[in-house]
Amino acid sequence: MRIRIDGTYAEVVHAANTIRTLLPIRQISPVMKLRERPHTWRVFLNTAPRRDTGRWIT
């Protein structure tokens, strides 16, 4: 799944770090400054499939 995050630099970094704690991340694009909107940055996150934790042993 590909996730796009837009916002100020601090918002983008905070959101990316928060998502990294919840989902396994495969790739993070470089943070890009948007020309059409001042003080706005964009980053794309590609998530990896969840790792199989195996079955419970009973």
What are the SSEs and their pairings?
Elements: E1 2-7, H1 9-22, E2 25-28, E3 32-33, E4 41-47
Antiparallel strand pairs: 1-4, 2-4, 3-4
What does this structure look like?
- The structure is a single chain.
- With 58 residues, this protein is an alpha+beta fold.
- The chain is built from 1 helix and 4 strands; from the N terminus they run E-H-E-E-E.
- Strands 1, 2, 3 and 4 form a 4-stranded antiparallel sheet that branches.
- Strand 3 and strand 4 (41-47) form a beta hairpin.
- The longest helix has 14 residues, at 9-22.
- It is elongated and about 50 Å long.
- It starts with a strand and ends in an 11-residue tail after the last strand.
- The relative contact order is 0.32.
- The model has no long low-confidence stretch (mean pLDDT 86).
